[in-house]
Amino acid sequence: MNKIGLEIVGLSYSQTQSGAYALVLAEQEGQRRLPIIIGGFEAQAIAIELEDMTPSRPLTHDLIKSFADSFEVKVIEVLIYNLIEGIFYAKLICIKDGKKVEIDTRTSDAVAIAVRFKCPIFTYEFILEDAGIVLDEEDEKSKPKVKSTKKPIQPKEKKGIDSLKLSELKEKLQHAIETENYEEASRLRDEINKRNGKEN
């Protein structure tokens, strides 16, 4: 199975889940985005490393890096290898004395470790096919001018997504992508896939 390279393109506070964040990974040679909801601690660990900040005391992921360095274990890549019922599964691919070892981990921890080891992140096509959000070239061009003057298509009253028609879900998904609300887009995408019989 061919692996697809990913890179971190966004990390934003969740508007619907208290204390949660949306981590957005993008395929390196394509327009798809993979939004993953992660906890606040893991989001902080990723952000600190991306911003080249040094905490006063080592965080858990810094400790893992120091421990691995001390025992000459190198993390050479992170692989997001499965998606079951909306949960992403990942593993660290490590090398010690020329021997390759795979260690199962949560995806959020895997990304926090990947940024410390500066190693690549990969996934498989079937995961991007199921959970990816496609951005076409026009979406990419319009990204800097995201202040949309369009009025939301849906009325202000809160309707659960399960009560919306498929066409309404698709409109809301498009709006979420245009405004870069990837967390909402991932919820809508899952509901659309469920209705189309594309259960994970």
Q: Could you explain how this protein is built, in words?
A:
It is built from 7 helices and 8 strands; from the N terminus they run βββααβββαβαβααα. It is of the alpha+beta class and 200 residues long. The chain has 2 domains: 129 residues, Roll (Bifunctional nuclease domain), CATH 3.10.690; 52 residues, no CATH class. The protein has an 8-stranded mixed beta sheet. A hairpin with a 6-residue loop joins strand 1 and strand 2. The longest helix is centred in the C-terminal third of the chain and has 14 residues. The two termini are 18 Å apart.
Helices, strands, pairings?
Blueprint: E1 3-13, E2 20-27, E3 32-39, H1 40-50, H2 60-70, E4 73-84, E5 87-96, E6 99-106, H3 107-117, E7 121-124, H4 125-131, E8 133-134, H5 137-141, H6 166-178, H7 182-195
Parallel strand pairs: 4-7
Antiparallel strand pairs: 1-2, 1-7, 2-3, 3-8, 4-5, 5-6
Helix pairs in contact: 1-3, 2-3, 6-7
Which keywords apply here?
200 residues; alpha+beta; Bifunctional nuclease domain; 2 domains; 8-stranded mixed sheet; 7 helices; 8 strands; 32% strand
Count of individual helical segments: 7
- Report the CATH topology name of the largest domain: Bifunctional nuclease domain
What is the averaged pLDDT score?
83
Q: Point out poorly predicted stretches.
A: 138-158
CATH domain class name of the largest domain? Alpha Beta
Radius of gyration from CA coordinates: 18 Å
Spatial order of the strands forming the largest sheet? 6-5-4-7-1-2-3-8
Q: What fraction of residues sit in β-strands?
A: 25-35%
Number of domains: 2
The CATH homologous superfamily of the largest domain is called Bifunctional nuclease domain
Fraction of helical residues: 25-40%
Q: Provide the structure class.
A: alpha+beta
CATH second-level architecture of the largest domain = Roll
**Succession of helices and strands:** EEEHHEEEHEHEHHH
